[in-house]
């Protein structure tokens, strides 16, 4: 007799030797004592003692991936093997059923769908992809990342800043952004009109050392300053350094004199109170006196005229009234003028013998111009004919020698081809 029992040995029965392989295992009401090998352990549902291997775990795996997600498949961890002593050989072979989760295998790649950004990490350019897939994609936007200069942005199409290396299992540096070759476009501090001589760069621009020219307030001389020094000064100090320190060389608006003040900005002070002396004369320039310039301006204004409209040569002329002595001098001057005009008029009488009418002179000039124009036309026609013949000869010569050159080139290429074939096949 042979005893057949369950795995724990509590339930058993005896059968004749030789037929134990055809008997069904006994059903045991006791709980199974085999410890589960999967990660659920004590959370597994208890089952009764059985004949053969323990049934697979029915719980969800929930193993955490490196990406942070959890496996949502049925538990596929290891399970205790069956004890050969308590295993019956099946009469019929069962077909192997392939399942996605084979007991004892590691978790499959993470199947979760996640939003993944493009290789350039642009906003609103994400795509839904499987978490375990490391595929990268490029959107249609420009890169837009700041360049090393810190002032401009990359204009390349979207490219990878970090690239996943499957061999090393980590991210490596991808394609670098473009190089900025633009000139510096920053505004200098203090503000000046000169551009920075360096190419586009981060940080502040170097101080401006350009020499600038500034004339003094009166325009008599020109000062040269460094741009940084001049523009860093306050407005009052700029006015002070531009003064030449000499007398103002500007002309007063109401008279012909220069400003007596030291070089200064703006309009000259009190131009109507000029205290310089002016020689005042009568209309015939016989009488003369010295007046102050302000009195001369007052006299012009009293006469109803503007002093600034009077020229320098006529300034102060006619302000004094003429007397009897002035009138006699005028009469003497008139008689002298008449005596001078009489011999001049006699010399200007026309010579009757050599006199030629104006119409004849004009006619002679027209004839000469017509002759000259005819000669010019003949000369121009001859020049054009010679130039045309020369161009035809040059064109014919070029075509002839070009044709000869093409024939020579063709013969040379044929000879070179024959020599090349002889080198390849010496028997020819």
How would you portray this structure in words?
With 428 residues, this protein is of the alpha+beta class. The chain is 27% helix and 11% strand.
Task: Write a concise synopsis of the structure shown.
By secondary structure, this protein is an alpha+beta fold. 27% of the residues lie in helices and 11% in strands.
Secondary structure elements and pairings:
Elements lengths: L1 E4 L6 E4 L97 E4 L10 E4 L31 E4 L4 E4 L37 E5 L6 E5 H6 L2 H8 L34 E6 L5 E5 H10 L14 E4 L3 H24 L10 H67 L4
Parallel strand pairs: 9-11
Antiparallel strand pairs: 1-2, 3-4, 5-6, 7-8, 9-10
Segments where pLDDT lies below 50 for 5+ residues?
Answer: 90-102
Averaged pLDDT, please?
A: 79
Q: In which order are the strands of the major sheet placed?
A: 10-9-11
Determine the fraction of residues in helical runs and give it as a percent range: 25-40%
Number of helices: 5
- Outline: elongated
Total number of strands: 11
- Structural class label: alpha+beta
Taken in chain order, the helices and strands follow as EEEEEEEEHHEEHEHH
Strand content: 5-15%
């Amino acid at each position: 007799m042979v005893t057949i029992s369950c795995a724990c040995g509590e339930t058993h029965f005896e059968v004749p030797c030789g037929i134990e392989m055809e008997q069904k295992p006994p059903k045991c009401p006791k709980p199974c004592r085999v410890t589960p090998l999967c990660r659920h352990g004590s959370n597994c549902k208890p089952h009764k003692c059985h004949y053969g291997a323990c049934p697979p775990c029915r719980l969800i795996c929930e193993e955490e991936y490196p990406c942070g997600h959890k496996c949502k498949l049925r538990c596929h961890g290891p399970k205790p093997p069956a004890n050969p002593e308590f295993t019956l050989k099946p009469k019929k072979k069962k077909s192997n059923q392939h399942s996605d989760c084979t007991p004892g295998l590691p978790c499959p790649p993470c199947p979760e769908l996640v939003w993944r950004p493009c290789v350039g990490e642009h906003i609103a350019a994400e795509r839904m992809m499987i978490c375990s897939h490391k595929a990268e994609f490029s959107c249609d936007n420009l890169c837009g990342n700041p360049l090393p200069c810190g002032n401009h942005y990359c204009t390349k199409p979207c490219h990878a800043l970090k690239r996943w290396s499957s061999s090393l299992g980590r991210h490596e540096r991808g394609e670098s952004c473009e190089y900025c070759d633009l000139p510096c476009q920053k505004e200098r501090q203090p503000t000046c009109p000169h551009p920075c001589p360096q190419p586009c760069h981060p940080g502040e621009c170097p101080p401006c050392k350009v020499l600038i020219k500034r004339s003094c307030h009166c325009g008599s001389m020109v000062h040269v300053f460094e741009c940084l020094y001049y523009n860093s000064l306050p407005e009052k100090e700029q006015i002070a350094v531009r003064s030449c320190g000499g007398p103002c060389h500007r002309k007063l608006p109401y008279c012909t004199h220069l400003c007596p003040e030291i070089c200064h900005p703006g309009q000259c002070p009190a131009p109507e109170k000029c205290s310089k002396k002016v020689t005042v004369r009568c209309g015939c320039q016989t009488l003369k006196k010295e007046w102050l310039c302000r009195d001369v301006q007052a006299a012009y204004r009293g006469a109803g005229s503007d002093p600034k409209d009077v020229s320098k040569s006529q300034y102060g002329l006619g302000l004094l009234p003429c007397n009897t002595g002035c009138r006699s001098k005028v009469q003497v001057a008139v008689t002298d003028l008449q005596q001078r005009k009489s011999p001049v008029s006699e010399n200007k009488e026309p010579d009757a013998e050599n006199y030629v009418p104006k119409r004849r002179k004009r006619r002679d000039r027209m004839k000469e111009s017509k002759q000259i124009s005819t000669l010019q036309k003949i000369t121009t026609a001859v020049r054009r004919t010679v130039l045309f013949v020369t161009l035809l000869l040059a064109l014919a010569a070029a075509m002839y020698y070009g044709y000869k050159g093409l024939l020579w080139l063709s013969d040379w290429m044929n000879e070179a081809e024959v020599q090349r074939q002889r080198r390849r096949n010496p028997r020819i």
